[in-house]
Amino acid sequence: MRLSVAHTTVYRYDRPVQLEPHLFRLRPREDAVQRLIGYRLDLTPPPAGQSWSLDQDGNAALQAWFHDPVEQLTVSVDFAVETLRENPFDFVLASPVYDERLRAALSPYLPSDDPAAFAGLAPRESDPMAFLTALNGGLFRNFRHVVREDGPAHPPEVTLREGAGSCRDLAVLFCAACRARGLAARFVSGYERAAAFEEQAHMHAWAEVYLPGGGWRGYDPSRGLAVSTGHIAVAAAADPQFAAPVTGTYRGLARSTMEHSIRMQAGA
Question: Considering only CA atoms, which of 180, 115, 182, 174 is closest in space to residue 142?
């Protein structure tokens, strides 16, 4: 499936500020299941300098720095992606557990979350696939879904206690439950096809779980489905803050506001 996205974010300040170096993770992944057809990122005002790199999780990241004070920063990104994984279950699970070397490699995605805290979210299935299906469906059915336009993801304990959360909150809770079960999981930031049909589109968040034989596989608890061609992955990390689309601060006694617009088109 081909998906096109035009995403503009405007940061306004009520008096001039000095921007510290910013990091932008807004370039979609390029891998075996997602092909980037075209991409453009524009910053206004233009930065004094910029540099592309791979961050600690392998995400494409642009660092930009600015010399002159600004009262507004506009970030515009346009791209087209072809998503290729039509069947999210097109693999054979090689093993229900990780061997010692694989567990060591996945250790950043396997912190020691308390298993008892999340025991009620899904049955203690011995089959990882059954566990993931039950967890994904349970979070979708049993939690109230809300929209929070800004702010970090809530800790999993908060979402569990309140029985409600945004897509990023549910993704964090999903990851915590997987890790407590012994499954490596990471937070994913990106876009989804359903946003193309909403009046006010937003970026989306979901989770990926590492399954031997299948690699990283996406699960979207706010939609109750396994990820296939309708999602565009941009950045993934063990910690949600390292998958944030824009990271940066400013110096100055000013109040800031943010507004955004996202337009998506979906084709065959």
Answer: 174
